[in-house]
């Protein structure tokens, strides 16, 4: 039987590559055939040679058979496309397309199936270089593949480690933000408790607790949205009013470290942004400014300033840098009298996880989050600093027209005509169940409590007076809210189930059961939101009718 291999002879006798082997075919003399045979046979890289027009395999070397698990006699004379080595068959077509378009391939990475002696298979990865060779008018392709399975697994392991480290940083950053908010909540709660004991409770303290809790709720909802890659919901915001409202939230955070001053320009246009994210930007900037203050500076100050700035094309690079665009902006700046930042460090302050603080003092996420939020809103962040004199971080927000009219808070009271409907409240967390029951009872509903889904089904089965609505947590031990709805769909078909959760959002999945209310009460919720959600579910209204779900967008 004639040898099917074309006379491939390297001119230099070195270890063959696709390029050297291909070049050698046309120029090597006959006497160097033996050298080529040795190089081909002993190469540690897998080499395959096939005819271009039909991809018929001409030869493979020992490294190729060792890498793929296919014997030479089983593949020579077959089309390389028919081999069961391609983990993804489209990779074979992609390789052919690259060869047709570019004439050669360099660094083509793909997954392959390695066939094991015991009949099993294993996943492998290879990088291929391929070059065409013309012999007697016939085009062949010489492919040299390197098994990079070990390197790929090591790289993936490093990537997993890096992601875990980033997750740790993220968890630390979130804990940092929540601890700041909890500081506000705890402090005002203690003040309110002490004043109530003395008969002089200050309702403003309760308002600040609600404000801080709303900010914490907004942070939690943004984390859920981030983990699911959901977009934020922007709306027109009065930036000046937001800053004024946040003053009492910021004062406990700054504490006695510095004098906090607000300089809010009157009559500012509105900006289009997510309200919770505006609060997050302000909180992060003030915390960053506080941490930049020298410990022994008794005259330390932090100034929060708002204003307007028109930036034309001639000034855009000077004012906003490379990321900016001409336009009209509303500005929010935080200035501190801290230690300042040198030029090299200033260039990196918006990088995620970059920080000059001690490990227990910062995660490098605060300013990166600010940068991401402002850029998402179409704005720009600019930082200026002088070592020893302090730092100013200015956020530029595109104008969005006249400022919106302020809206009064809704009271948690039932709507006119609300009857004493019976609500079965299913919640495994006692404090949440207790406060929800208290809110709904005050709103005029008759509330029966269940600690889990199983108890809820038992109550439905043995009650003499039917329930009008089941309000259930979505995630509970043993049986969650959706499972409760599935059971009730056959046991009590007319009984609707309204879910509440801190994990889910309104989605098509909620509408797949006929008795499941197709929208959700997001946790944490305000009393008015809970009452409105129950009323809407009983009335068969949509979220648009009842404004349920606005909390996720507004940071409430």
Automatic annotation (TrEMBL):
It catalyses: ATP + protein L-histidine = ADP + protein N-phospho-L-histidine. Keywords: ATP-binding, Kinase, Nucleotide-binding, Phosphoprotein, Transferase, Two-component regulatory system. Residues 32-79 form the PAS domain. The modification 4-aspartylphosphate is found at residue 473. Gene3D superfamilies: 1.10.287.130, 3.40.50.2300, Histidine kinase-like ATPase, C-terminal domain, PAS domain. It is an enzyme of class 2 (transferase). Pfam families: HATPase_c (PF02518), PAS (PF00989), Response_reg (PF00072). Residues 422-538 form the Response regulatory domain. GO terms for biological process: regulation of DNA-templated transcription. GO terms for molecular function: ATP binding; phosphorelay sensor kinase activity. This is histidine kinase. It comes from Roseisolibacter agri. The lineage of its organism: Bacteria, Pseudomonadati, Gemmatimonadota, Gemmatimonadia, Gemmatimonadales.
């Amino acid at each position: 039987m004639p040898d099917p291999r074309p006379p491939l002879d390297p001119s230099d006798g070195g270890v063959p590559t696709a390029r050297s082997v291909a070049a050698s075919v046309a120029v090597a003399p006959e006497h160097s055939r033996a050298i080529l045979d040795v190089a081909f046979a002993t190469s540690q890289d897998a080499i395959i040679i096939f005819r271009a027009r039909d991809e018929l395999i001409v030869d493979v070397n020992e490294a190729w058979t060792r890498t793929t698990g296919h014997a030479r006699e089983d593949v020579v004379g077959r089309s390389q496309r028919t081999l069961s080595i391609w983990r993804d068959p489209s990779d074979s077509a992609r390789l052919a397309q690259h060869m047709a378009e570019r004439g050669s391939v360099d660094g083509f990475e793909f997954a392959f199936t390695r066939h094991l002696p015991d009949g099993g298979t294993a996943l492998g990865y290879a990088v291929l270089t391929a070059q065409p060779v013309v012999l007697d008018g016939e085009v062949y392709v010489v492919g040299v593949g390197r098994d990079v399975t070990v390197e790929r697994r090591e790289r993936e392991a490093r990537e997993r480690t890096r992601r875990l480290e980033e997750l740790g940083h993220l968890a630390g950053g979130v804990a940092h933000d929540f601890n700041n908010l909890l500081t506000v909540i705890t402090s005002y709660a203690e003040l309110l408790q002490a004043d109530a004991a003395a008969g002089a409770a200050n309702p403003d303290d309760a308002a600040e607790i609600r404000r801080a809790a709303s900010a914490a709720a907004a942070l939690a909802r943004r984390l859920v949205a981030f983990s699911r890659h959901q977009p934020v919901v922007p709306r027109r915001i009065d930036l000046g009013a937001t800053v004024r409202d946040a003053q009492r939230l910021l004062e406990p955070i700054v504490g006695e470290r510095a004098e906090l001053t607000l300089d809010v320009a009157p009559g500012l246009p509105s900006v289009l942004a997510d309200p919770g994210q505006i609060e997050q930007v302000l909180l992060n900037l003030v915390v960053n400014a506080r941490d930049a203050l020298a410990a022994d500076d008794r005259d330390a100050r932090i100034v929060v300033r708002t204003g307007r700035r028109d930036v034309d094309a001639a000034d855009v690079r000077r004012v906003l840098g490379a990321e900016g665009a001409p336009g009209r902006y509303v500005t929010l700046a935080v200035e501190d009298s801290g230690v300042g930042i040198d030029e090299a460090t200033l260039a990196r302050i918006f990088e995620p996880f970059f920080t000059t603080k001690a490990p227990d003092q910062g995660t490098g996420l605060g300013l990166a989050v600010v940068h991401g939020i402002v850029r998402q809103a179409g704005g720009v962040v600019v930082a200026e600093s002088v070592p020893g004199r302090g730092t100013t971080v200015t956020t530029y927000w595109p104008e969005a027209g006249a400022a919106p009219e302020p809206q009064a808070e809704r009271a948690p009271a039932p709507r006119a005509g609300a009857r004493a409907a019976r609500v079965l409240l299913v919640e495994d967390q006692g404090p949440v169940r207790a406060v929800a029951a208290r809110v709904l009872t005050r709103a005029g509903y008759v509330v029966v409590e269940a600690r889990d889904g199983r108890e809820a089904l038992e109550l439905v089965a043995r009650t003499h007076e039917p329930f009008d609505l089941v309000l259930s947590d979505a995630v509970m031990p043993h049986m969650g809210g959706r499972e409760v709805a599935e059971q009730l769909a056959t046991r009590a078909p007319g009984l609707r189930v309204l879910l509440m959760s801190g994990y889910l959002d309104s989605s098509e999945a909620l509408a797949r059961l006929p008795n499941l209310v197709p929208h959700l009460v997001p946790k944490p919720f305000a009393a008015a939101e809970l009452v409105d959600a129950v009323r809407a579910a009983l009335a068969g209204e949509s979220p648009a009718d009842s404004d349920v779900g606005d909390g996720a967008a507004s940071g409430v």
